[in-house]
């Protein structure tokens, strides 16, 4: 019998702690996130899911009073190392937020924003990048004749897809998604979930979700967080069906949260 291949590790978090002033938001988190898989972080509000997600690309750096200890490693690079180039790091890690956060610009300029920020591409290169980005999220046919229209006029699902296209335009290796479907209706949610499954062939995806069914539908691995601790992490069926910690069992059964 041939054993299934073990996915390569993409992100490693070692004994990671984060404080907001005196508040201990993340407590000695240790986790191994596999490459080109979808990993879901679940848990009640305020448990540290989004804080952990934002720690991967150092978005918490902008918050006054934040202190960190421990390590976050992407491949062999220490995210919090003294010599890390934060701008280059964020090119490697795309981010999609809870609600579509498009710039008040055209469709074209939203997707072109990142490549322009990080270089001086020609118009032809930008056009190819925008087309590839829109094709990648299934928007090219719908928007190819509307590239000069204001992006904020698009329906909510198209806005979120455009946010994903913008995140992918800098050719990242990792895509972080913080409640990417919470502002969408069930049909739009299904479409974004299908898109995640397509993208995972090329990207390592980490999502935060309050939707237990969504975590089960889309992720291969799941981590349950509670009060700043990563209580349990493993293959999604194991976490939901045979959890090793009583707190995980109580949460996924709906007994709290």
What would CATH call the homologous superfamily? P-loop containing nucleotide triphosphate hydrolases
The helix-strand sequence is EEEHEEHEHHHHEHEHEEHH
What is the annotated CATH architecture? 3-Layer(aba) Sandwich
Indicate the overall shape: globular
Low-confidence regions: none
By CATH, the topology is Rossmann fold
Give average pLDDT, whole number: 93
Strand order of the largest sheet: 6-7-8-3-9-10
* N-C termini distance: 41 Å
Alpha-beta content class: alpha/beta
> What is the name of the CATH class?
Alpha Beta
User: Rg from C-alpha positions?
Assistant: 19 Å
Number of extended strands: 10
Characterize the main sheet.
6 strands, mixed
State the helicity in percent bands. 25-40%
The number of distinct helices, counting runs of at least 4 residues, comes to 10
Quaternary form: single chain
Overall number of domains: 1
Overview of this structure, please?
With 257 residues, the protein is of the alpha/beta class. It has a single domain, classed as Rossmann fold, CATH 3.40.50.300. It is 35% helix and 26% strand. The chain is built from 10 helices and 10 strands. The protein has helices spanning 49-56, 86-92, 107-117, 123-136, 140-143, 156-168, 186-199, 212-218, 236-241, 246-252, and strands at 9-20, 23-34, 38-42, 66-74, 77-78, 93-96, 174-178, 204-208, 221-226, 229-235. Strands 6-7-8-3-9-10 form a 6-stranded mixed sheet, sandwiched between helices. A hairpin with a 2-residue loop joins β4 (66-74) and β5 (77-78). The protein is globular, with a radius of gyration of 19 Å. The chain starts with 8 loop residues before the first strand and ends in a 5-residue tail after the last helix. The model has no long low-confidence stretch (mean pLDDT 93).
